[in-house]
Design brief:
Distance between the termini: 18 Å
Strand content: 15-25%
CATH architecture: 2-Layer Sandwich
Number of domains: 1
Number of helices: 3
CATH superfamily: STAS domain
Strand order of the largest sheet: 1-3-5
Number of strands: 5
């Protein structure tokens, strides 16, 4: 099964999160391995960061590794500011759609 990389928008704010969340749910339902490419994210608010945490926890729960293919300096700064580096690690890869 192939890995699909989802490129996040430059702005990951309350205005974009709903669309991104819907896209990710569709990809997950199609039994794809998913990684987020956050290399283009320049603006991030708490809604956007909550989406990243949700995806990271979902990936960890389903042992998909790694949840992110790349992170922008903006996203890295946010992660470091909140001391949430440990939330970005997960175990052995398997499709997110495989519910246990």
């Amino acid at each position: 099964m192939s890995t699909q990389v989802y490129l996040l928008p430059q702005e990951l704010t309350i205005y974009e999160v709903s669309d991104v969340h819907r896209d990710l749910l569709e990809i997950i339902e199609s039994a794809q391995f998913v990684q987020l490419d956050a290399s283009e994210v320049e603006e991030l608010d708490t809604s956007g960061f909550q989406l990243l945490l949700w995806f990271s926890k979902l990936s960890k729960h389903h042992h998909q590794q790694p949840p992110f293919s790349s992170l922008s300096p903006s996203v890295n700064s946010y992660i470091e500011l909140l001391h949430l580096e440990s939330e970005l690690y997960s175990g052995e890869a398997q499709p997110l759609s495989e519910r246990t």
